[in-house]
């Protein structure tokens, strides 16, 4: 599912006119009709509705929506949030005339007192700076009420999800024609609330003409990318994952990663560990084969995919392992301690790195706070400059490819912010690689299914009590849920 920025959303409207012969007036009517049907599903007729309208096209949608709702028997007032002398969009002027003709009650924002539901039609994708004047007052007045936003909550930058100052916090956003990037990443997702996409009559040709490289990971994508399992197969068909990791006190990390690789579908999984925890790893693992990291060259040769880093703590051996893997041709997932060895040698192998914001901050020389404010831009830039897949973990994990392709994942919950969760993810991505998925596809599949397993597990345990082990136990149920 593609996500658009503000420029692409404007271009989509233009393509509707040039490719579909839909004039702006018709597109606004289509948007208003789609909004009317959505509001009628969500708002009871007993509610008093206030539609806060700006002077741009978003406001035009609001005036037409108000007129349509009045015709359906709703009690509606249009709140005019601009002066008569303002620079009003021509289509919005037409909408005002139509709404007056349909007997829509109109009052100034200063005269607003009360409502059951407020509809935010102030600003769409074109927010330029902090709100002021009547727009600012309108946002403040809406705050105590249930708010439904048209296209984008007013005051939210739809390109990066950042509020540009004070911003509408909606319970639901009806986004028009296509999903917008800023609605799906934090903090934007908090302001958007529930999101419903409303088509406005544009053809597939219009969407095909938009070159968007940002997508939302959804069930359709997962089914398309998932490696197939044929009946006439054997263990070797589904590959060997070799996980290098573990240290004294951190044996659980390599145990969880190597187990998750098997549960994701790999034919073989090996845990290659330091001698100091060899016996403990053998006791903990049954299906996984345990080997000593003294044999790292031999284990590298037999691997179809590698996972490096879970549970390593300042192990000098990791330096040799990373050098060997970086110079080879086999796909590698690098996590945790492995991230500290990325720049030891020129990397030529297909590589996926899985940092959390703090780890990524060290890689790019910024603070974790700065990383979280620019997750899409920074992960995409790093992926392109270093020719590797970046999985920037966190709420709405970002998966970025060197080609510029970016995916945003929406599965997962706060309970997954727990020790070992990242180890499970690294193992799952390794399992996908072993089964033959490309590095980018493996990362997308692993992240989505990892989050889904966490969502399903949290229904049993709650987010508070969720553990990495429980996430791993629910990997199979995630496959079943998606009917994979």
Structure description:
- The protein is α/β, with parallel strands linked by helices.
- The chain has 2 domains: 16-210, Rossmann fold (3-Layer(aba) Sandwich), CATH 3.40.50.10260; 220-481, Ribokinase (UDP-N-acetylmuramoyl-L-alanine:D-glutamate ligase), CATH 3.40.1190.
- The protein contains 20 helices and 19 strands.
- The strands form 3 sheets. A 10-stranded mixed beta sheet has the order 10-19-18-17-16-15-14-11-12-13, sandwiched between helices.
- It is elongated, with a radius of gyration of 26 Å.
- The mean pLDDT is 95.
Describe the protein's topology:
Elements: E1 3-4, H1 6-20, H2 24-42, E2 48-53, H3 57-71, E3 75-80, H4 90-101, E4 105-108, E5 117-121, H5 133-142, E6 146-150, E7 172-176, E8 179-180, H6 181-184, H7 188-192, E9 194-198, H8 204-208, E10 214-216, H9 219-225, E11 240-244, H10 251-264, E12 268-273, H11 278-284, E13 289-292, H12 296-302, E14 305-308, H13 317-326, E15 332-334, E16 351-353, H14 357-364, H15 368-373, H16 375-386, E17 389-392, E18 398-400, E19 406-408, H17 421-434, H18 439-461, H19 468-473, H20 475-481
Parallel strand pairs: 1-8, 2-3, 2-5, 3-4, 5-6, 6-7, 7-9, 10-19, 11-12, 11-14, 12-13, 14-15, 15-16, 16-17
Antiparallel strand pairs: 17-18, 18-19
Helix pairs in contact: 2-3, 3-4, 10-17, 17-18, 18-20
- What is the CATH T-level topology of the largest domain? UDP-N-acetylmuramoyl-L-alanine:D-glutamate ligase
Biggest sheet, open or closed, and with what strands and sense? 10 strands, mixed
Q: Distance between termini?
A: 19 Å
Count of distinct strands = 19
Helix content: 40-55%
Spatial ordering of strands, largest sheet: 10-19-18-17-16-15-14-11-12-13
What is the beta-strand fraction? 15-25%
Query: Measured on Cα atoms, how large is the radius of gyration?
Result: 26 Å
The low-confidence parts are none
Mean pLDDT score: 95
Give me the CATH superfamily of the largest domain: Ribokinase
Shape: elongated
CATH architecture of the largest domain: 3-Layer(aba) Sandwich
Number of domains: 2
Structural class: alpha/beta
CATH class descriptor name of the largest domain: Alpha Beta
| Total DSSP helices | 20
């Amino acid at each position: 599912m593609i996500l658009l920025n503000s420029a692409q959303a404007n271009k989509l409207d233009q393509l509707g006119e040039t490719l579909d012969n839909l004039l702006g007036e018709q597109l606004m009517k289509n948007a208003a009709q789609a909004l009317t049907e959505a509001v009628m599903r969500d708002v009871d007729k007993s509610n008093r509705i206030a539609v806060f309208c700006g002077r741009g096209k978003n406001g035009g949608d609001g005036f037409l929506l108000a007129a349509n709702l009045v015709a359906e028997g709703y009690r509606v007032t249009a709140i005019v949030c601009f002066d008569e002398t303002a620079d009003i969009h021509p289509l919005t002027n037409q909408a005002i005339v139509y709404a007056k003709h349909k007997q829509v009650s109109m009052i100034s924002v200063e005269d607003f007192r009360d409502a059951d539901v407020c509809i935010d039609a102030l600003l769409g994708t074109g927010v330029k700076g902090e709100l002021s004047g009547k727009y600012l007052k309108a946002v403040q007045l809406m705050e105590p009420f249930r708010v439904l936003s048209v296209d984008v909550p007013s005051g939210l930058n739809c390109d990066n999800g950042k509020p540009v100052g004070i911003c509408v916090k909606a319970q639901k956003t009806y986004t028009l024609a296509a999903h917008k990037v800023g609605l799906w990443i934090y903090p934007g997702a908090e302001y958007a609330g529930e999101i419903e996409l409303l088509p406005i009559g544009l053809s597939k040709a219009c969407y095909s003409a938009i070159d968007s490289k940002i997508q939302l990971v959804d069930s359709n994508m997962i089914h398309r990318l998932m490696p197939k399992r044929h009946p006439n197969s054997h263990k070797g068909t589904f590959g060997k994952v070799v996980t290098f990791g573990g240290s004294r006190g951190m044996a659980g990390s390599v145990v969880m990663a190597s187990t998750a690789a098997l549960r994701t579908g790999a034919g073989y999984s090996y845990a290659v560990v330091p001698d100091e925890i060899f016996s403990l790893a053998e006791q903990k693992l049954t299906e996984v084969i345990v080997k000593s990291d003294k044999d790292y060259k031999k284990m590298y040769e037999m691997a179809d995919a590698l996972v490096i880093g879970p549970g390593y703590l300042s192990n000098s051996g990791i330096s040799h392992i990373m050098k060997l893997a970086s110079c080879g041709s086999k796909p590698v997932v690098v996590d945790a301690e492995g991230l500290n060895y990325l720049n030891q040698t020129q990397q030529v192998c297909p590589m996926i790195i899985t940092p959390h914001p703090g780890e990524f901050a060290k890689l790019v020389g910024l603070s974790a706070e700065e990383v979280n404010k620019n997750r899409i831009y920074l992960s995409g830039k790093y992926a392109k400059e270093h020719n590797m897949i970046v999985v920037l973990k966190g709420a709405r994990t970002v998966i970025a490819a060197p080609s510029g392709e970016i995916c945003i994942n929406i599965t997962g919950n706060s309970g997954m912010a727990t020790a070992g969760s990242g180890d499970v993810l690294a193992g799952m991505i390794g399992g996908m690689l072993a089964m033959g998925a490309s590095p980018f596809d493996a990362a997308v599949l692993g992240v989505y299914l990892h989050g889904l397993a966490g969502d399903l597990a949290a229904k049993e345990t709650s987010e508070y009590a969720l553990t990495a082990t429980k996430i791993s136990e629910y990997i199979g149920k995630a496959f079943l849920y998606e009917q994979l």
